[in-house]
Amino acid sequence: MIHSPKARGLRTSVSLLALASAWFAVQPALAQDQSVETVTVSGYRQSLLTSEALKRDSVNLVEAISAMDIGKLPDSSIADSLARLPGLAAQRVDGRSQVIAIRGLSPDFAGTTFNGRDQVSTGDNRGVEFDQYPAEILSGVVVYKTSDPVIVGAGLSGTVDLKSARPLDYSGRQLAFGARGEYSSLGNLTHEVSPFGQRYNLTYIDQFLDKKLGIAFGFAHLDSPFQEKHYKAWWWANTDLWGTPQAGKPADADALEGAELWVRSKDQVRDSFVTTLEFQPNEVWHSTLDVYYSNFNQKEYMHGGMWTADPFTSYSFGGVTSPAIGMSNAATSQYLGNKLVTSGTWQNLRPVVRNDYNTRVDVLHSIGWRNEFNFGKFTTTADVSYSDAKRGETHTELYAGRTAVSSMDFVVPTRPMFPSLKPSVSFADPASVVLFDAQKWGHDGRIDKPTQKDVIEAVRLDGKYQFDGFIDSVELGANYQTRQKSRSYLVYFATQKSPLSQVSSDLLYSPTDLSFGGFGPILTFNTPGVLNKYYNTALNMSDGDWRKDFKVKEKVFTSFAKINYKTSLYGVDLKGSVGGQLIHTDQESSAFNVSGVVQGGPAPTVATKAGKSYWDFLPSINVNADFGDGSILRLVVAKTMARPRMDQLRAAASASVDLTKLQWNGDGGNPRLSPWRADAIDLSFEHYISEGSYFAIAGFYKNLTSYVYNQNISNFNFTGYIDPNGNTDKATSVLGNYSTPANGRGGYVRGVEVSTQLDGNLLSSALDGFGLSSSFSWTDTSIKPDGPGTALNATLPGLSKAVADLTVYYEKDGFSIRVAEKYRSDFRGEISGLFADRVYTRILAEAQTDLQLGYDFQSGSLDGMSIQFQVNNLFNSPYRTVQDPSTGAPSRFPLEYDLYGRQILLGVNYKL
User: Fold this and answer.
1) pLDDT category of residue 890 using cuts at 50, 70 and 90
2) Which domains are assigned to the chain?
3) DSSP, residue by residue, 201-217
4) Residues 480/556, Cβ–Cβ less than 8 Å
């Protein structure tokens, strides 16, 4: 069996082509006999049928996910389910799907709603982190790939609408319970976190008052272990070009300048519930109240080592300075036209032993109250909503090491994988490995405490009038929404009470094993306990830390109008809509101007506030042609937009008046940014062969007329900025030079999506119970994300040219087997880097295969019970990165290689 991501991805693509061929092959037979037997289905097959019906009946171009039953979506996470839809791809964060790219555009381009209401984010920008929404308590998801005037909060790439159950849609009382045990195949990597976890969920739905009042309640508890084996090359360089050749390094060779090796574990606990009250006392009034709550608590432990290996570094101790770091017995390999040092011995190293302890708490609330009044042909609706998200984090890192320098044998591969390292001395001996700043970072330890809050308040009024004839209905409405996102970032330095302390035995754990990278055992201790016993802490902020603080406020008024039509022309049923949105946005940001702030000095006293208001008109035309034989053609032409990222809108800056030129200069965020805007056209053809079987192909083209990238602006308006040195009035103009994100020329994003769903009955009754669903997407762009004329290989963040999915299943007589594989080609990923800064890296192609086995009891005393066994990441697919061309360094040199293991779950569901 071929397990490489590239090979398996190609295999998926070939499978899709084969499926398309099979579809054409069965058409003659279907033409002769249209009497396909109707069968009663349940489970995953029922989920596919429901999703197919939503896709077929929608006026918009949508993809859908539906629960197999109450409390049972097809996957264990919403993000995994979304990643299986055509044109959608998930980015793994710490081994699990978290954020979603739609049609090659990063999560910041997508909108996310919960029951149609715009949602806050626990992340540092707009992109919603879907691990906050457990699959067990949602009834489904609809992804709108095209715009619609009545969808408020829509994204430029698409909109994900998460849905909870509506109790009056159910017949009678529904009660379901599920429990699963979880195990990480990597076992005990750290002393603090067990490889075992558990999940359980409860769903209750009922109706009262002669089915006029309904209640739906869902609760989900997650206690999930995370385990990781991690290696990362910091950077590669040929320092000969900089006039600093390294002793022992072959001439003109690129060498690794630093690296890290560690194990990391997390204890992740999340409790979530959703409650819906639905009241419909008569045919006129229909009221729905939704409440959602999620509390996510994470504790993370890291034990490992890292070291600088560049020729610029040398170490001193006890009055003796060692020679600069060099190497011996160096050997090279050719890689992409470069000569890389891949083996040898580093000399004069002083690795740091790192023991980190991090915590994170996310709390999310959402409440919405919708009242609909039906007066025959006229319907009016009022909706008020509120949602907020709070995140508080603490990152603690403490350093230890040997005071003397040492050497290390190394063999590093030319592609991302674990190295072979052999230090000349032990780093597990508590007598020789002591607490101190081994790498000369200027502090003995560091504690970062970022916090943030995101709040959305909204009120919406709309009405709909039904006509008879060509115009089916007219919809008018307005939505007013305020959003405020704020972030605060505090940094503390830890200083030892007594230098070079040895860790007492009561705070030591047995050494952590890093033999997967050849390093061997390394000193491991209780980080919170050591911090309290051996260190003093004090606030010590740099200008870069102060610039992470910001507050962004938005007031958005959206009015919309939509005319829905339907008619018949030459036997073809036509329906669709014409309409648009008129949007006024008023944005403002306040933050610090940190020009001249000294590390560890007093807080900046000068605040900056700036903003902008603007209008947008977003028209759209939607045409659906139903040919009556299961074939549907859809065309959508629209103008779309996405507001700038929050961190780009921040007013945080370092700006001052140059007294020589009497002119403003600075750099920072830009509160006056305009949105990303695009003109889009979508065309799709869908053919529904029979219930459970269809084929679809869609093409799209988005012309981004505006894109945001970092620029040097020579006539930036510094109105609202105050010189911290009191020189504001000395500038001859409010205009000056500013390096900041700014709007510039965009480009196109275009692509093709092919998807199919086949039921085994379509081919032969002998295949009853078998089926598959699959998709393949190809996306391309002309946009240079760093600006016109920049690196040709730097691509849009989140854009994989090829994304594919293949799911094969069998369901019959209570038995179920499902194997699913998702693939995405390499892409430019945006990740959290050093000190929580956002950085780019090139994430290589990956394919992940999941397995599910189950049995539903269909009679007897166990009727209503089902057993399920799951293995996620069946082949232990690694996470691999290489240097991104945007860094200016040689591209595609190997960087990161992580293994997360297999996630194994065994559980039971019971429904009354």
Assistant:
1) low
2) 5-911 (2.40.170.20)
3) EEEEEEEETTTTEEEEE
4) yes
